Amino acid sequence: MKKEGDGRVDKGNQQLLARRLAEEVGISEPEARALIKLIGTDWNSCFVKPDS
Asked: What pTM does this model have?
């Protein structure tokens, strides 16, 4: 994902990330955008793997 000079993901890619997040976890795109706004665009931070 292309990042802007300040480390943020550009708006178009942020929409793609929100769409993917929504599909992966079964939430709406507005909810996904709110999560991205809250926790950022690092895909790995969006998922917590349970302890084995």
From this structure: 0.63
Tokens of 4: 């802007």
pLDDT digits (tens, 9 = 90+) for 27-41: 999 999 999 888 888
Whole-number Å distance between alpha carbons of 1 and 13:
7
Q: Is the dihedral of CA 16, 45, 4, 34 positive or negative?
A: positive
* Angle at 34 (CA atoms; ends 33, 35), nearest 5 degrees: 90
Residue 41, helix vs strand vs coil? coil
> Helices marked H in 1-52 — which ranges?
11-25, 29-39
